[in-house]
Amino acid sequence: MMMFKITKKNWPNIEEPIKDLLNKIMELKMEHSDYILLQIIKTLYFNFCAIPNINDNILIEIKLVYFHFLITLFKKVINSRMFDLQLSLSCLFMLSDSEACKWISSICKSFQSDYTRHLRITVLGYEYFYLTKNQTLQTFKNNKILYYWAQKLSKYLVSYKEILTSDSAAKREILQRIMSYDEDLIPLFQEFCFDFGFDIQDCLLLYLQTIIKTWNPKLNISNYNGKKELHINEDDINQLNKKCNSIAAYIVDKVALKNWVTMIFSQINFYHYEIFIILMDLIEDKNIEHRNYLCFLQNYIRTGPPTQIEYDEWMHLNPGYTSLPFIAEWRLPFLPKIELWKLITPELNLKTYEKWLDIAAILKLQPHIICTLAIKGEVAHIWKNKHKIAKWSLSSKNKSLLNHIKKCIERMTGPDALYYGTAALYYVVNHTPPGADQVAAIEECYKYAQLSAQKSMMFEEGMLEKIKIKYLRFTSEHILHVHGLGNKKYLSLIGNPNKLVHELYTDESIPQRYRCVIDHRPDINSAVSSISQLFSINLIKLRIELLQEWLQPDTKYMKFNQSITETFPVMTNLESNLNCDDKLLRACYILEYGDLELSANFLINIGFSEKNEDYSPEVRYRALYVLQSIVDTAKLEDLIKRDDQTIK
C-alpha cells in the first residue's frame, strides 16, 4: 500500500475516501466484531486528531462513527448474559467525563423498569464514579446497596420493586415481615440497620415484639381420666425462650428493654402465659404474685364461660377477630390491669373453689368471697330453671348440694365467717326451687344466723328475725304439703299457727274417714304435731282445750231441766244423735294419736269421777262414748276396774 503525507493542500482529495471508508464500516455486519471495529475507528480517530490543522468536518465524521460503535458495544455488554464490568468501564473511559456522566444518567433512566440491566448500570456507575471521584458516587452507592438487599431479601419473598422504591417506613415494614421467619436473623438485621441507618437496638426490640406477637404454638389435647386437657408443645416453648434470650443478649440498653417489656405486656395474647413468664425472666422481674398466678393458670383448666370484659379485651387487641380463639376454651385470660373478680367469677363453683383458695393469699383474695361466689355459681348452675318450677317438691332433688355448700362455708375464715356463711345460705334459700331442698337450706341458714347473731359484729339488727320468719313459713308450708294439706286455705293461715291448728282439726276428712271409705286421709295429727313443735305450741294443752270444746253437746240437743227426773229422756235423745256428731269423731281422731292410755284416763276422769261436778251428764256421757270408741272392751275394763255390763 502506497503511503503519502496528508497536507492541507490535499484535504479535498482525502475527505471523500474517508467518508467512503466510514460508510462501508457502518454497513459491515458487526457480529462478534464490535470491539475490533471500535479499536480501528478509535485508532483512526486519534491519528487524525494528531494531525495539525486537520479539517474539523473529517474529525466530526470519524467521531460520530466512533461514538456509534462505542455505544453499540456498550449496550451489548449491558444486555449480555454475563456482565463484563471491566469492558464496560473501558468503554466509559473512551468517552470524555462529561459524556460518560451524561450517558450513564440517560441509560440509567431508560433501564429503570428493567431491574437486571438497571443493576448493571448501577454497579458500573458506582465503579466509574468511585474511580473518577465524582460527587454522584453516593447516589449510585445507595442504589447499589438497594440492589444488594433486593437480591439478599428475595428468598424472603421481598420483590425488587418493593425494596428499590421503599422509604424508611416501608423498609421498617419489610424488616418486620422478615422477622416472622424461623431462623437466626440477627446478623442480617445488624447489616441492614448499618446500611440504612436504623437503630439496631430499636430493631431488636421490634424483632422481639414480632416473634412474641406472631407466636403460634402447637396445641395438644390429651384425655386424662376421662377429662380433656390442653398442653402447649414444649419444643415450641423452649424454642421461643431460646430465641428471646438470644435477641435480648444483643440489647445493650437493659433499661430500655425493661421499659419495653412493661409497655408490651398489654399487647400480648393474654392466653399465652409462657410469653409473660419468658419476658419476666428477661428483665429479672421478681413479681411473685404474677409468677405464681401464671403458674397456677398453666395448670388450671377453665370450666366457666368467658365474660364480656374478656370479649372486649380480645377484640381490642385483635380488631380483625369476631370470636375468641380456640385456646380460650381451655385457658383464662391473664389481664393484670383488670380486677380479678370480674374475670374469675364464672369459674367459681363447688368443684373449683378449693383450687382458688390455695392461691388466695398470693392473689390477695378473701376466702369468704371465693366461697360465696362459688356457692352462688353452683346454685345458679344447679337451679338454673328455678323460675320454671312452680310445684312444691316433697322430697329433695339434690341431697348432696347442701352438704357441699356447708363444706365450702367451713372454709371461710375470720371473725365474721359465720356472718358470711349465713349470707351465702340466705342466697341459696332464695335461689332454690320451692320444696324439700329450700326447707333444708333455710333450716341450715337459721342455725347459722343464730350463731352469727351471737358472735359476729356485722350481723344486722332484725336480720335474725327476718330469717326466722322465712324459716317458720317454709318449714310449716313443707309440713302441710308433705301431709297432703297444702291448699290455699291452710297456707294462708301459716302466719297464725294457733288458728291453723284449729282449722286443721276441723278438716272435713276427719269425720268422713269414720263414716265411709275415702281416698283423701291426710295424717292431720302428725301435721299438727310437727307444726306445734315448730311454733312451740303446747300440744297437750291444745288437745285438752279442743276435747273440752268438742265434748260439749250442741245446744239444740240440750233439752234437760234442772230436775233429775227429766234427765233420762234427754239421754235418750243424746244417744240418738251421737253417731252423727262430727265433734265426737274429731275427738276420737285426736285421742288415737300419741299415748292412748293417757287419753283414756283423761276421759275416765270426766266420765266416772263422782267428785267431778265440773262436767254435765251430757258431757260425761259423750266422754264415755269416745272412750268406748278408742279403747277395746278388755282394755276399758282393766282401766276402770269394772265389767262391760256395769259400764253400760
Automatic annotation (TrEMBL):
Q: Which InterPro entries match?
A: ARM_KNTC1_3rd (IPR055405), KNTC1 (IPR052802), RZZ-complex_KNTC1/ROD_C (IPR019527)
Q: Name one GO cellular component term.
A: RZZ complex
Which Gene Ontology molecular-function terms are recorded?
A: small GTPase binding
| Biological process (GO), any one | protein localization to kinetochore involved in kinetochore assembly
Domain spans labelled KNTC1 third ARM-repeats:
69-279
Protein name per the record: Kinetochore-associated protein 1
What the entry lists under Pfam families is as follows: ARM_KNTC1_3rd, Rod_C
Q: Domain RZZ complex subunit KNTC1/ROD C-terminal, which positions?
A: 324-641
Species of provenance:
Apis cerana (Indian honeybee)
